[in-house]
Amino acid sequence: MTFQGRWLRGALAGGVLALGQVVAPALLANGDTVLSLPANPSTGYAWILNQETSTGLDLVVVDSLGYGPPETDLIGAPAPALFSVSCTGRGNVRLVFDYVSPDGTTVGETRAVDLVCGEAQSLN
């Protein structure tokens, strides 16, 4: 299944939602998905859920699953950072992730995803 929208740069395939800069609202009717963010573990940068700018965190449980398989067999190859998202309630959720330097002082980039847990609702 591919979600379509102005900001979509990802697709849901095999239960994994690959995130671009901003992703169109995704309805989580069954309540669970895995988010995949582009990363390179060898840089020391890591994706961190920004709890201050995210909304609806009381409606989901977000857990880091570590990294997926590397894109190539080369040492230092990029590998996606994976996060599981499980709905615990119904409503609108915006998850904001920051790609943070090893010392925590620099945000390399920010990506966000809007989700609807349960039945379709307005994303206002």
Alpha-carbon distance between the termini?
24 Å
CATH topology, anyone? Immunoglobulin-like
In what range is the share of β-strand residues? over 45%
Shape: globular
Structural class: mainly beta
CATH class: Mainly Beta
Describe the protein's architecture and organization.
- This protein has 124 residues and is an all-beta fold.
- It has a single domain, classed as Immunoglobulin-like.
- The protein contains no helices and 9 strands.
- It has strands spanning 12-13, 16-18, 22-28, 32-37, 46-49, 60-67, 81-87, 91-100, 107-117.
- Residues 1-16, 20-25 and 120-124 have low confidence and may be disordered.
Strand and helix layout:
Blueprint: E1 12-13, E2 16-18, E3 22-28, E4 32-37, E5 46-49, E6 60-67, E7 81-87, E8 91-100, E9 107-117
Parallel strand pairs: 2-4, 3-9
Antiparallel strand pairs: 1-2, 4-7, 5-8, 6-7, 8-9
Keywords:
single chain; 124 residues; mainly beta; Immunoglobulin-like; 47% strand; disordered C terminus
Structure at a glance:
With 124 residues, this protein is mostly beta strands. It has strands spanning 12-13, 16-18, 22-28, 32-37, 46-49, 60-67, 81-87, 91-100, 107-117.
